[in-house]
Amino acid sequence: MKHLLKMLDLSTEEILDILNLADQLKYELKHNIPHPHLKGKTLGMIFQKSSTRTRVSFETGMYQLGGYPLFLSSNDLQIGRGEPVQDTARVLSRYLDGIMIRTFEQAEVEALAEYGSIPIINGLTDFCHPCQILADLMTIREFKGQFEGLKMCFIGDGNNMANSLIVGCLKVGMKVAVACPEGYHPDKQVLDFAAGYGDMFELTDSPLKAAENCDVIFTDVWASMGQEGEAEKRKIAFKGYQVNDEIMAAAKPDAMVQHCLPAHREEEITEKVFEAHAKEIFEEAENRLHAQKAVMVKLMG
Ligand code: CP
Ligand code: NVA
């Protein structure tokens, strides 16, 4: 594994290796056992979109590993004034040991990896959010003990979260059901991948059908970063795609709820369901730290 660009690139074994290391690093942190695997290394973090969790967890994680993180807002970089990503990649490769990038186009992340000579980590694009999904899988295993035999459902927009969750959950052996309205389906590349899993995967327009008998329920905002102008139109399109008591009643009684955050209460999830499952949701947020530290150690260690 040279980069973390998208879940589609990872083998099941690579995913499980990252999760095992993440569990170990979490244990070590909780028990004050130092783990300076990246002593003397630097990570550049390029942000073309806002972030709370990704920025703070990467920055803190790099510090805990003995390395040094550089926060690079694209507003202040020449990339924000049009310097090509190919040139940025070749320059930054000469200073840094790794780059995390959050941007719009997946092609930009792939170009960084192609032209640079250091590991590239995708911190979210319009296409996918692999760091988040690794933390999600870590959380599911923590609460449920295993992946085999579990069913997850995703309700809402077929966005970057849906794209990555479908791939990640199928790869570790979970059943996946996705409920999206017409016109907001996951990416074709992801649906083609999922088609190879036969009846382990289901795409429907019925949230209740997707939630039936499931162990883990995921949702995400109806309008992602960059889609703010479509927010009103999307509120209409996604009416009925809310994780609420009715959805919870269709799921297994001990079903857990996951949300990558930030959450919009009373839109994609009710306040009641959110607060009833806050324990799992904030553990998921914490696990960003541990999962990403594992990714950095694997790629840069
Ligand atoms: N879930 C997530 O990526 O959060 P941020 O946008 O705050 O980084
Ligand atoms: N789908 C959301 C995820 C935020 C972490 C977005 O892209 O804005």
Query: Main sheet?
Result: 5 strands, parallel
CATH topology of the largest domain: Rossmann fold
On the 0 to 100 scale, the average pLDDT is 98
CATH class of the largest domain: Alpha Beta
Low-pLDDT stretches are none
Helix content: 40-55%
End-to-end CA span: 12 Å
Report on the structure:
It is a single chain. This protein has twelve helices and nine strands. The protein is of the alpha/beta class and 301 residues long. Strand 5, helix 6 and strand 6 form a beta-alpha-beta unit. The protein is globular. It starts with 11 loop residues before the first helix and ends with a helix. It binds phosphoric acid mono(formamide)ester (CP) and norvaline (NVA). The site of phosphoric acid mono(formamide)ester has 8 residues, from helix 2. Norvaline binds next to helix 6.
In short:
This protein is of the alpha/beta class. The chain has helices at residues 12-30, 53-64, 85-92, 106-115, 130-144, 160-171, 188-195, 207-211, 231-237, 245-250, 271-276, 278-300, and strands at residues 42-47, 68-73, 98-102, 120-122, 151-155, 175-179, 201-204, 216-219, 256-259.
